[in-house]
Hints:
By secondary structure, the chain is an all-alpha fold. It has one domain (38-253). It contains nine helices and two strands. The protein has helices at 2-23, 40-67, 72-86, 103-110, 112-129, 138-164, 167-193, 200-237, 239-254; strands spanning 90-91, 97-98. A two-stranded antiparallel ribbon has the order 1-2. The longest helix has 38 residues, at 200-237.
Amino acid sequence: MNIRKTLASFLLIAGIVCFFLVNEPESAYAMHIMEGFLPPFWALFWWVVFLPFFILGVRALIRITKETPELKLMLGLAGAFTFVLSALKIPSVTGSSSHPTGTGLGAILFGPLPMSVLGSVVLLFQALLLAHGGLTTLGANAFSMAVAGPFVGYAVYKLMIKSTGRQKLSVFTGAALADLTTYLVTSVQLAVAFPAADGGMLASFAKFAGIFAVTQIPLAISEGLLTVLVLGWLQAYTPHEISALQRNLKGADRS
């Protein structure tokens, strides 16, 4: 039974990877906030803001893998889902891009802190292997995609599941808002680094957010729907792991 579950998970990941590799745009200029784009002060600032979440995320991952080692495969799936979706690049504002993030699924499954590690590892590999993002801007990209997005997505999911009891709607909304939050934070990061000569930071934010919205809103809706489908698949074919996840989240809430 475990072999069948492992094979099914592998086929799901392989299918998603193959689909997006075949359909991925080839523009070399489509990426997260690219290497060297942020001024040194802001690049360092976002690294400092991001690192505490990364440290807490490492502690959360150690606890998960120690208490429930059977969830290691599920962690790998959450990381693969994030890697594939966030590698689908659609050129947008100069110096950045629009793309799904994939962090909502992992945040809903494991909580937001583990995603600070999984998301930053994804961003590191994309920067090194795909020239998607950069090392100096990794702190800024990780804070927007691996911290802000997962925290908002998880909080919205928990709030809606408690208030409505409708899981699919809660998953859709949480995943979609995790995606949109990433790009709102990215817009803030670009706005504070490059305030407009006329109107300052607010005008710059309105410009960046407005351009992002053209591509990001449809992407967020699509990501929310895909997350609902993937989570439904996991619940149908990996009930033991889902039960372990629920016990893990209850233990994390108590601690």
